[in-house]
Write a structure and sequence with these properties.
The complex is a heterodimer of chains A (245) and B (326).
Chain A (H helix, E strand, L loop, with lengths): L5 H15 L2 H8 L7 H9 L1 H5 L8 H10 L10 H11 L6 H13 L3 H10 L10 H8 L4 H8 L4 H5 L2 H13 L16 H16 L7 H6 L5 H8 L10
Helix pairs in contact in A: 1-5, 1-6, 6-8, 8-10
Chain B lengths: L29 E3 L9 H9 L2 E7 L10 H12 L1 H7 L4 E6 L3 H4 L2 H15 L4 E8 L5 H17 L3 E4 L5 H14 L7 E3 L7 H6 L3 E5 L8 H11 L4 E4 L11 H11 L4 H16 L43
Parallel strand pairs in B: 1-2, 2-3, 3-4, 4-5, 5-6, 6-7, 7-8
Helix pairs in contact in B: 2-3, 2-5, 5-6, 9-10, 10-11
The chains are: A mainly alpha (245), B alpha/beta (326).
GO molecular function (chain B): hydrolase activity, acting on ester bonds
Protein name (chain B): Hydrolase TatD
Organism (chain B): Mucilaginibacter hurinus
């Protein structure tokens, strides 16, 4: 279980919002009240860009550090104003009853447009009751929308902390298939496992057979569990010692 | 939505076909304000982008057979703002949509009630530029009821309305659609009356509404007729669309019509109005259209399946004439 100073984080995000959106948009946003009025909550979430715009936020280094201290691994660098304000709104939605809370947020996921989905998946590490979102996160990895995948895969501590091994392996493989930058996956080296190494080697073999390239980062992961000499042979296209998994 | 006519009704028009020469309108940009991309292939997106279509509107419609549960509607609406929007972006075409309960399915009242409940979840979303396509098909009391209810929704959300006009008893259906919109206090400039023809256009324009024309083979307007309509009425408040869908239709109807207008001596300015500018003006009243987004600026981070990144507005091309697929 990860340490989250939820109140401290809310305050920090509120400050960043103050720096980045108009006074009118702030007044409107800060007047939004949680889940008491569901229809107002859904509407506020949907029309966020009309109020806040979609501008890249400015944030200084000390704020970045403080945010990272309030929630390890969490970053809002390079976010847009609508994304940040949506995540802020989601953080106000703490409900008494887990079921109602879950159903409300889940409905946003199931009706989300592209940018809404990006905000929703970026919010996973700061939503309360992390265990509620494991299946949702695994579902998001099945998306084919690039920006949605990146919201889950890049600089997001939630998957490494919460996904089980099959879902984690699926995410890494999906990242490889969709040509993502593997170095931005939080926990890439801490969550690597023998089964993933096997899948990676099988995949490299398949690519070799098809006359296609692989991301070199793949070998750096596999070598943690597979003999380095064998790996070096495979890299050169020598698969004599390879046995299909 | 298009054809309720059967294949047998269709007659192949006489005359020598002329080939479409895109060079006639090279460098022009087009906005197709009514096209059902969900029913089209990736090749169509590529062809549209090549022909100069920079943005489009996909109205929510009938999928060819009736849906039986509200979740089917929910998933369809979310695909219009999600997956389809992403698919379009891969080709540098800005994708907008209008959201509504179409007239045919309004006749299933039990389901229609449930659909009405979820519409507010979607109409405020980014890139939703209107309530549509709504209106009359059979002109039943149920259709009227939900047309009225959705006009109220549009008014509340401050969105334009995209009105489908019926195939049968068209003239009267069109008049009724306008009368009811006025009755609900919608300003004519917030209402786009779609699928016009020579019989309906005069009154639509005189009453201050936008008149959209669907260039759709066999059942709606042909583009030669469209050239004549533009000559007769001028380009103000007139727009053309393809309404391409799962029927025999043409996603290049807008650029082809522009080309035919050019060859027929219609001015570039008039062509621009009816194939681009008027539709932008009408639907930008939603506050959701920013022309800077049309520039084929593709989100550099958007990637698709196992394809490599292909920015600059292009998906990787395959050579269809080659027997080799690599």
């Amino acid at each position: 279980m990860q340490f989250i100073d939820a109140e401290g984080l809310k305050t920090l995000l509120t400050d960043v919002i103050r720096q980045n959106v108009t006074p009118e948009a702030q007044a409107w946003l800060f007047a939004q009240g949680g889940l008491k009025d569901l229809s107002a909550f859904y509407t506020a979430f949907a029309l966020m860009p009309r109020k806040t715009g979609k501008f890249q936020i400015n944030i200084d280094e000390s704020q970045q550090k403080q945010i990272n201290r309030s929630r390890e691994g969490f970053t809002i660098n390079n976010w847009t104003t609508d994304r940040l304000a949506r995540v802020w709104l989601l953080m106000q939605a703490e409900g008494e009853n887990n079921d109602a809370y879950f159903n409300t947020i889940e409905k946003l996921f199931s009706t989300g447009e592209m940018n809404e989905l990006v905000a929703l998946y970026s919010a996973l590490p700061v939503l309360s009751h992390p265990q509620l979102w494991v299946r949702r996160c695994a579902e998001g990895i099945r998306s084919n929308i690039g920006t949605v995948l990146e919201a889950i895969m890049y600089d997001n501590p939630y998957p490494a902390e919460n996904l089980d091994e099959p879902a984690w392996n699926q995410m890494v493989m999906k990242a490889i298939f969709t040509e993502k930058d593997l170095t931005r996956i939080t926990g890439l080296y801490t969550r690597v496992n023998p089964e993933l190494a096997r899948i990676l080697i099988d995949y490299a073999r398949e690519r070799w057979a098809a006359g296609r390239q692989v991301d070199p980062a793949l070998w750096q992961l596999a070598v943690i569990f597979v003999d380095e000499t064998a790996i070096n042979q495979m890299k050169r296209g020598n698969w004599e010692n390879y046995t299909a998994g | 939505m298009c054809c309720s006519h059967s294949i047998e009704d269709r007659q192949i028009p006489a005359g020598q076909p002329e080939s479409f020469d895109i060079n006639a309108v090279k460098g022009m940009k087009f906005f197709d304000p009514h096209v059902h991309m969900t029913s089209r292939t990736t090749d169509d997106y590529q062809a549209m982008a090549d022909a100069g279509v920079v943005a489009l509107i996909e109205p929510a419609f009938w999928l060819g057979q009736p849906r039986t549960g509200v979740d089917s509607f929910k998933d369809y609406y979310s695909s219009l703002v999600g997956w389809e929007r992403f698919r379009s972006s891969q080709f540098g075409i800005k994708h907008y949509c209008t959201i509504g309960l179409n007239s045919r399915e309004a006749n299933n009242e039990a389901l229609a009630e449930q659909v009405m409940e979820i519409l507010p979840l979607f109409v405020y979303k980014d890139g939703v530029v209107g309530v549509g396509e709504i209106g009359f098909d059979d002109q039943t009391p149920a259709e009227e009821k939900y047309y009225r209810a959705q006009l109220e929704l549009a008014k509340q959300a401050g969105l334009p309305v995209q009105v489908h006009t019926p195939h049968r008893d068209k003239k009267k259906g069109t008049q009724r659609s306008m009368d009811i919109a006025i009755e609900h206090g919608l300003a004519p400039h917030m209402v786009i009356i779609d699928h016009n023809n020579e019989e309906t256009v005069k009154e639509v324009l005189e009453r201050g509404f936008w008149a959209a024309f669907t260039i759709y083979p066999f059942t709606k307007m042909g583009n030669k007729r469209m050239v004549e309509v533009t000559r007769q009425y001028g380009p103000e408040r007139i727009m053309v669309n393809s309404a391409a869908d799962w029927g025999i239709s043409d996603p290049l109807a807008v650029p082809k019509t522009a080309a035919l207008m050019k060859l027929s001596g219609i001015s570039d300015e008039a062509i621009n109005l009816v194939t681009y500018r008027n539709a932008v003006t009408a639907f930008a009243q939603s506050g959701q259209i920013n022309e800077d987004d049309f520039a084929g600026v593709i989100d550099q981070s958007a990637k698709f399946e196992g394809n490599s990144i292909l920015r600059g507005g292009q998906q990787p091309r395959i050579d269809k004439s080659s027997i080799i697929i690599s």
